[in-house]
Amino acid sequence: MSTGNLQDYSLHDLFRMEVEGQAQVLTEGLLILESHPASAPELEACMRAAHSVKGAARILGLSAAVAVAHSMEDCLVEAQQGRLVLGNIVIDALLGGVDLLARIAATPATETAPWMQDDAPDAERFRAALAAALAADPAPAASSASALAATIEPEPASSADTAHADAESEERVLRITARSLNRLLGLAGESLVVSRWLDPYIRSLSRLKRLQNDSAVALDRLADISPAMSRDQHANALLMEARSAIAESQRQLADRIAQLDLFERRIASVAHRLYDEALSSHMRPFADGTRGFKRMVRDLARELGKEARLEIVGAKTQVDRDVLAKLEAPLGHLLRNAVDHGIESAEQRRADGKPAGGLVRLEAHHVSGLLEITIEDDGRGIDLEQVRRIVVARRLADEDTASRLSEAELLEFLFLPGFTLREVVTEISGRGVGLDAVQNMVKQLRGTVRLSSQAGGGTRFQLQLPLTTSVLRALVVEIGAEAYAFPLTQIVCTAMLAREDVHWLEGRQHFELNGRRIGLVSAQQVLGGAEAKAAPEQLHVIVLGAPGGGHEYGLAVERFRGVSELVVQSLPSQLGKVKDISAGALLDDGTPVLIVDVEDLLRSVERLVSTGRLTQLRYDDSAQTATRKRVLVVDDSLTVRELERKLIESGGYVVEVAVDGMDGWNAVRAGHFDLVVTDIDMPRMDGIELVGLIKKDARLRSVPVMIVSYKDREEDRRRGLDAGADFYLTKGGFHEEALLQAVVDLIGEAAA
Amino acid sequence: MSAKHTPAGSSSAVARLLDRAPEPEALREATRHVAAKAEDLRSLTGSLFVFRLGAEWLGLAASVVDEVIEPRPVHTLPHRREGVVRGLVNVRGQLTVCVALEALFHLEPGHAEAARSVLNRRLVVLAWQEQRLAFEADEVHGSHRYDPATIGNVPATVAHSVSPFSTGILAMGQRNVGVLDDALVLSALNRRLG
């Protein structure tokens, strides 16, 4: 099986990978050159990168890329020889060239024909732009260039040196597909599970040894109580033989157990290390997700007529691959905000006594088991009084309240959707879709974001995120004799409820918790399992709450198993989204567990409540409900549904409802019903189809079905009965007695 | 079993068994087997993975079968308890979708309950194009090489529910094995997963 050999890549893929790498070198080099135009190592690196791309492009016959790389190389060689100083405008043009090369490389192999010509319009345009930039830049004479180089030589050399040292000390990184990484992790996990098998086995051997010891003791006792035996020479010899055989077995067994014990410890240690190592290869250096940012900050600042640069601290901080991928958009947004809103124009900064160039710092490090990311600028900060004015203007609070809001409270408003400090919406940020999107993403990763600001001194965002999304602390419970896990961060609390703590209110079950009344729901019903068994005297309940002050629900499960650290596996993609489930994992014994998507689950509960389908937990001895016959009413009209429910309930039957044929089909399979009453015309699945399905199902075939419909023509009646319905009642002539009588005729009285 | 415990001597039952003259029929069969020309073997270009579901013996192209392991717990999926998907199963540390082939073929479960032994059940893991699926077979025969020319038509009497998925019947000794069209089976399964 292929695991991503280079052989599997086409020439074109290789070119694309090479250009990706060289574009990185070029971008980083050019950004340093912008502030230190004569830095020799960067000029050399960039020139080589352009040269390599040129060579590679020539092999593929991508003449346009050859031309672009060639012009860039020329320009860099000129700069190396001191005949040219790279000013902002030229750097702009060169960065444009890098982008163009990346674009050419990213073109699918089948569509590269336009790039096969020297005079491809984009390449021509680039060369013209570069020529224009070279002409426009106040190109100093050779002498002044070298003078400039001389003045700033010492510093850039040192900064470039450290940069290079950095690059070398950085560990070699391999390309590996997510699939093989996941398989590696799976196998490591399996070896861990397999290694755990030995321990109970060794304990069983120890039991065997004790058992054998017992037989030795019995033998001794036998010799004690029959002294005659020791006098008989033959018997005595046999006894001695048996004793020494047992003693030898005991010795050998002890020896084997000790060896096996040693082996178990060795293998467990290896399995653990292997697993930890496989898990940690999920981590990538922070720098991997932040490569484009320096360039972005610079380009953006220039576009806005400002000066700004980005400093990244903690580039080697290890971050989970998935977290890193999800962070890219919010970090980019915060950086854009910092440049657009935070950093002032150079003139204003000088007037305020700050350096003309603004500084944005992006810092990542680990703090007590969390990943902390800070984005900080030295710009103007947030004007709290302005926030206060906008809060009042937008009627989010009255003037009196607003005047009493603390700084922290005022800053919270910035995270509201649509809240902006900008009067004018700019291209870059200030649409008001920013901070709320950032906050959502951070919440999705189960982290927090804090904002602080100092008027005139800058703004600071602090993100705290879990180090990894691949390990999750969760409460493992049993529902329908299968394992499910609830993320600890999403559980409000857990409770053990005695039967007398469960109250009835408006036909629903509730319990009191810290003075709040919480609705009780059977986990098994929500997850669509088979009908729940009778509830135990002590209910195990997980309290879940919708974020943002939604309802709280108590979910009754069968049993708490305990808290586990689960290594999260996404579900096989063939399945699509599985309702109420977010991912899967394996328990210590290797059996699968499903991780519950709590928000999805709460929505399912709300839906059950709103359609009145929520069933009650049954206690064992509630004999009258247990033996009452159960009827399912399927109708898409709320009025008809509720009317039928009332009518049939008045006969003492237990009634559940479903809102259309599909819903009914699900319900009829999940619960035991003695009768199904259905309409014909319904969305998603009509009654005829429902009847057909029931009558085709071996298990359900015997359940009688009654159709209640407005259609009173004989052919409709015929169609219903042909599908297998046992009775056809028209709504036209429908009154209490007729419906109830039909029910009684079909399944007898409510209590059997 | 060790020879040490058998009392030595030409009169023992074991010795008599070992010393008996071969049956003429067995001798002829062995001779025919040894004398078989290479051509006969060369025509065995097909390789079929043969397994049993209920009373039916079926065969899938051996190339789509990744491994065969002992059965293990299957975790059902909420809201998806009917149909082809049985749930998720741990295969070498990875959660893998487990399907019920008998549901795809509408084979009646319990048809041959007597012949079914839990001991013989195996989890068969299929792998193709980066995808993996597992299913439980009641019994696994293993790989069988055959001559594609010997595949016969599906007689109308044979399990009509399987026939849409099979390309023919292969006689394997006493057994008739329904040869499945793997592309058809896999795409039908895939369509029913989501």
- The beta-strand count of chain A equals 23
User: What is the CATH architecture term of the largest domain in chain A?
Assistant: 2-Layer Sandwich
Query: Number of domains in the coordinates of chain B?
Result: 2
Sum up the overall morphology of chain B in one term.
globular
Tell me the quaternary state.
heterodimer
Total helices of chain A: the number is 26
Rg of chain A, alpha carbons? 37 Å
Structural classification of chain A: alpha/beta
Q: What gap, in angstroms, lies between the N and C termini of chain A? A: 63 Å
**Beta-strand content estimate of chain A:** 15-25%
* Total helical elements of chain B: 5
Helix content of chain B: 10-25%
Which regions of chain B contain 5 or more consecutive residues with pLDDT less than 50? none
Mean pLDDT of chain B: 80
Stretches of chain A where pLDDT falls below 50 for ≥5 residues? 1-5, 140-169, 424-433, 621-626
Distance between the termini of chain B: 53 Å
Largest two-chain interface: A-B, 35 and 29 residues
CATH homologous superfamily annotation of the largest domain in chain A: Histidine kinase-like ATPase, C-terminal domain
Order of helices and strands of chain B: HHHEEEEEEHEEEEEH
